[in-house]
């Protein structure tokens, strides 16, 4: 894997295209935040996950890529970037005027080794397991269980079936959520109703590719690899998570009709069939992205470092 050198006319349009792609999501969110307005679906990727809008807007070529030109020089001061050494410039037939910079992979791995290793374990383990379908998004219902006694996450939304109807759905269905970061938000009374008791420790053995939240988390594993990962792949994972979030909330107990989201009525046979069909499609799409992320992680490991070439 030789280093790839990109001239300004090659990488600057990519950076602009990425920023335009990301702004379609960041600008509406920032306007709502300034106006202190909430959106139950479209705020999620910005409020639950830790990557900030400004970070999403910033384009990175990924590891093993050299950027040249005046605009590239600014990146020498960015975190996990470095200018090329004199020897590297000579090997690539570049000089100081070319302003060549690249991702400082050694510094990135020194600082993020634990995160990279954990992402590798989660991604490879999840990819190897069969998808479990038919959970029907009951994790969201379990979070709203006994709402008359507990504060619910979206207190400004109405429950589509009311409190008693929501409780009945929880009590009359099998709940087997495998995802710790969904399970940890359950209402206290719903915790013993889940057939599994996921923990952070068991996450690496329970994650499976049918889980909507595990598939949304591909975005999390992607941005944790920034800047060693190309931003185009980060945005692919972001947009996948965005679409999954829409389905997740349409299948939730909340009434989102006024927000433009008709329900997936998982309390009905037809609704459950719709849910499984969409869940299967998202699982297949997510497995492809999971494989791409794993491929990049494997290229970051010691022993897989590139030589210098044109």
TrEMBL record:
This is 3-methyladenine DNA glycosylase. It comes from Arthrobacter parietis.
């Amino acid at each position: 894997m030789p280093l790839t050198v990109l001239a300004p006319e090659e990488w600057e349009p990519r950076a602009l295209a990425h920023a335009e792609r990301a702004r379609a999501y960041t600008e509406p969110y920032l306007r709502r935040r300034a106006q202190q307005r909430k959106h139950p679906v479209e705020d999620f990727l910005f409020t639950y996950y830790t990557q900030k809008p400004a970070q999403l807007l910033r384009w990175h070529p990924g590891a093993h890529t050299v950027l040249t030109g005046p605009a590239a020089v600014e990146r020498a001061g960015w975190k996990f970037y470095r200018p090329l050494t004199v020897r590297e410039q000579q090997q690539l037939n570049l000089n100081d005027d070319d302003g060549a910079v690249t991702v400082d992979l050694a510094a990135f791995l020194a600082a993020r080794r634990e995160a990279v290793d954990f992402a590798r374990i989660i991604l490879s383990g999840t990819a190897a397991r069969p998808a479990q379908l038919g959970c029907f998004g009951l994790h969201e219902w379990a979070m709203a269980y006994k709402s008359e006694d507990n504060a619910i996450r979206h207190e400004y939304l109405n429950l589509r079936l009311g409190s008693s109807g929501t409780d009945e759905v929880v009590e009359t269905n099998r709940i087997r959520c495998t995802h710790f970061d969904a399970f940890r938000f359950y209402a206290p009374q719903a915790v013993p109703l889940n057939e599994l008791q996921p923990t952070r420790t068991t996450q690496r053995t329970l994650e499976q590719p049918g889980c909507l939240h595990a598939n949304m988390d591909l975005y999390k594993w992607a941005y944790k690899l920034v800047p060693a990962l190309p931003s185009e792949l980060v945005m692919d994972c972001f947009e996948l998570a965005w679409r999954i979030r829409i389905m997740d909330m349409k299948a939730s107990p909340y009434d989102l009709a006024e927000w433009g989201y008709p329900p997936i009525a998982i309390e009905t046979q037809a609704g459950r069939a719709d849910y499984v069909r969409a869940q299967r499609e998202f699982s297949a799409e997510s497995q492809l992205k999971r494989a791409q992320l794993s491929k990049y992680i494997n290229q970051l490991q010691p022993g897989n470092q590139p030589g210098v070439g044109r």
